[in-house]
Design goal:
The structure is a single chain. The chain has one domain. The protein has 1 helix and 2 strands, in the order E-E-H. It has one helix spanning 20-73, and strands at 5-6, 15-16. Strands 1-2 form a two-stranded antiparallel ribbon. The longest helix is centred in the middle third of the chain and has 54 residues, at 20-73.
Amino acid sequence: MLNGLCFCKKQPERRKISDPNNWKKCHQRKLNEILKRSDRICQTLQQVTRANKESQFFRVLIQIMNSRICEEYN
């Protein structure tokens, strides 16, 4: 959206929005789309972070178990 022009997916051609209320509605729709996308990105990042923390936990656990096994054999 630039200078009062609204680009809608359903109507690919540009159309000038003269009524400020229509412009606000279009702007709100675009904003909602962006917010939905950013929410999905945040959820994905949280899942990746959670998986990374879990894998770090298991790596540390394996290191501890390996060190204890080595201690028993030494």
